[in-house]
Specification:
single chain; about 675 residues; 3 domains; six-stranded antiparallel sheet; four-stranded antiparallel sheet
Length: about 675
């Protein structure tokens, strides 16, 4: 019998010089892949917190930070001067982020994605330069994506090239805690996860630096020294974090630290108004303790208002406290035009002797519970025990052409447009100087004054000369005007007219020259409307020019269905008051909701509220009320401030909380002034 012996195939040989293995070893960091894993844990916690906050739709921040960290690791292992590699990585990062951002657009084609992205970024840049409001979240998403790339790259390069703990941890830590400062408490546990990875990275980098020093002096140490340092450190860190969570913490308020914080945040605070208008669609995840009403009131998304007390009001009954009135409407929100400043002391300048009808003078005291310069007051403040600054709208300023031509592009108020037609048909440039002056005064409305005259050589043009009219008067031929006309033998081509300032003044807001702190207070006397419905129904429509100049303004791009709704609601109603009440009744059928999506970047806020979401909070209700009234030819404005509700029986004052911040509309009635509508 023959015995056969099985022959085993030779085992495959391990080739350590395989190109793939050589490349792997070439870029395997001497610090070990454990270091990279810990670093990525730190970075992913940061990007995860930003993603969970859902500030805006973004590309994958985790993907961006991973790619940038790989880039930082690769550049860290390239010998020589890294400047050129840094520049190349900036270009690579810009291209990668730009490509990722293009996927957020609504375009269909590959090229069209980039075209839409460029268009929206250019629109945002123009809005920023022109002082407008933007509800487009693409620019903010671009900032987040760019920060993710920079933080990932810098942290990886600092870790694997420099073993620099501060440069590896500090940028991400600042980003992490800056983001958390705008988030509610439920995001707090992510702090401990970040601290765990950050401390592990600290231990790892320290162990690497220690190993480098030991190698330098020839000290022998175990190869797994770094791993065990991280392992032991993890247990100590977990123990410390558990203790920090279990032990109750009592908040301590240190006055000098509060003052220092207020001083440090002053530069940032000065930018808050611009940031609010440029990133208006970002949600409010955490109440700030008090709501800031600046020169812009954008249409925002979800808001979160706390029950934090912000004012104490000593008044005989609840009153609206106006923080700011907004005259100009845009699809993205409300803005305040140019203002002038008056000083409110015992008597407000220009508030005497004329007063509106059916009003009650009321004295009240407001005590802020936070540091502020913005001081809300009730309607039409007349005087104050302390000196306060009153911001009023600058009078309307217009140039009127006297030589026939295209006037449609001038966008003049109706009464001034009528004056232009009258003056151009009169051909006053062919008359004597006295006749010119008389014709001008008869044509110009009584509530406007001529302040400047422009001459040119002939009817067809030529050089231009401007002359100021000193001490301009209203309603009669002024010798100063005649003398000004006689200074030039050329053709009168333009006149500049300025509206007379209203009396009482048209107040936008009240502020203090110096900050008011907790414990300070201010006392104001205001004129409160007591007009009855019967009086307002008979108020008529004889509006002064300063009212119609500003408070009937509507942007050309307002959707027609908003106009149609206003006309439908007020059809067959003869007086402004009942029209306003009809609009008010309709809006009260819509539900109140603070958790609504912001309007799209190219949407109109009022249209979004009325026809897209059909619900909203007071900013939307007040805006819709004001816009619909304007479409019904009722002068109206948007006002933001506070509506106190809670009375403290023991302290005998009203407690105004952040949740009492409110927006409402006001309509103007001849002889009665501004009247609130809810």
């Amino acid at each position: 019998m023959t015995t056969q012996t099985a022959v085993m195939a030779p085992a495959p040989t391990f080739n350590p010089d395989h190109p793939v293995l050589r490349a792997f070893r070439r870029f395997t960091p001497a610090e070990g892949w454990l270091t990279f894993v810990i670093l990525m844990g730190t970075l992913l916690v940061i990007t995860g917190t930003v993603t969970d906050a859902a500030w805006a739709d973004t590309p994958s921040l985790a993907g961006i930070v991973f790619v940038s960290a790989i880039a930082g690791l690769v550049v860290a292992k390239v010998p020589g001067n890294p400047i050129g590699w840094h520049v190349a990585t900036v270009v690579l990062g810009a291209g990668f982020v730009y490509w990722q951002m293009s996927t957020l657009t609504e375009a269909t084609g590959f090229i069209e994605h980039f075209q839409e992205l460029n268009t929206r970024l250019n629109q945002w840049r123009e809005t920023a330069g022109e002082g407008g409001i933007s509800t487009d979240t693409i620019p903010f998403a671009l900032m987040l994506a760019s920060f993710a790339w920079v933080i990932g790259y810098v942290s990886a390069w600092a870790t694997f090239r420099k073993h620099n703990l501060w440069l590896a941890v500090l940028p991400g830590g600042i980003a992490m805690f800056s983001n958390l400062s705008y988030l509610p408490d439920e995001f707090g546990p992510q702090v401990f996860l970040y601290l765990l990875f950050a401390m592990l990275l600290t231990i790892r980098i320290h162990a690497l630096n220690q190993a480098t020093e030991w190698q330098r002096i020839g000290f022998v140490f175990p190869r797994n020294h770094g791993f065990y340092a991280v392992y032991r450190g993890a247990w100590y860190i977990l123990f410390a974090l558990v203790i920090a969570v279990v032990i109750p913490a009592r908040p301590v308020q240190v006055p000098w630290m509060d003052a220092a914080w207020e001083w440090m945040r002053t530069p940032i605070g000065s930018l808050e108004d611009d940031l609010d208008r440029l990133f208006a669609a970002l949600p409010d995840r955490k109440g700030s303790g008090y709501r800031v009403f600046g020169d812009f009131l954008p249409f925002e998304g979800p808001i979160s208002l706390s029950d934090e007390p912000i004012f104490l009001l000593d008044a005989p009954h609840p009153i609206y406290l106006r923080a700011r009135a907004y005259p100009t409407y845009a699809p993205q929100g409300w803005t305040v035009d140019d203002t002038e400043e008056l000083i409110l002391t015992e008597t407000l300048p220009r508030s005497q002797p004329r007063r509106n009808q059916s009003r009650l003078e009321l004295e009240y005291t407001v005590a802020p519970l936070f540091t502020t310069r913005s001081l809300p007051v009730s309607n039409l403040p007349l005087g104050s025990e302390t000196e306060l600054n009153v911001q009023v709208l600058s009078p309307g300023d217009y140039w009127l052409p006297l030589i026939p031509g295209d006037t449609d592009s001038l966008d003049l108020p109706d009464d001034l447009a009528t004056a232009v037609v009258s003056l151009q048909s009169a051909e006053i440039y062919e008359r004597s100087k006295e006749s010119q002056a008389g014709t001008l005064f008869r044509a110009i409305p009584a509530d406007a004054v001529i302040t400047e005259i422009l001459f040119q050589d002939t009817l067809d043009g030529g050089s231009e000369r401007a002359y100021i009219v000193p001490d301009a008067a209203v309603g009669e031929v002024n010798s100063n005007l005649i003398e000004t006309l006689e200074q030039d033998d050329g053709v009168v081509s333009w006149v500049r007219v300025v509206r007379l300032a209203p009396n009482p003044p048209d107040i936008v807001s009240v502020s203090s020259s110096d900050s008011l702190f907790v414990g300070d207070q201010y006392t104001v006397t205001s004129s409160i409307s007591t007009a009855s419905a019967r009086e307002l129904r008979t108020a008529g429509t004889d509006y002064p020019g300063w009212v119609t100049d500003r408070y009937l303004q509507i942007p050309d791009e307002l959707p027609t269905r908003v106009t149609d709704l206003a006309l439908d609601l007020t059809r067959d109603i003869s007086n402004p008051y009942d029209k306003a009440k009809a609009i008010e009744s309709y809006l009260r059928t819509l539900p109140y909701d603070q958790d609504i999506p912001a309007p799209g970047f190219d949407a109109d806020g009022v249209d979004h509220f009325l026809f897209v979401v059909g619900r909203g909070y007071s900013d939307y209700f007040g805006s819709a009320m004001a816009v619909l009234m304007r479409e019904a030819d009722i002068p109206a404005r948007m006002v933001a401030g506070y509506a106190p509700r809670e009375f403290d029986e023991e302290a005998e004052n009203f407690v105004v909380r952040e949740a009492d911040s409110h927006g409402w509309a006001e309509a103007y009635f001849p002889d009665f002034g501004w009247v609130e509508f809810e």
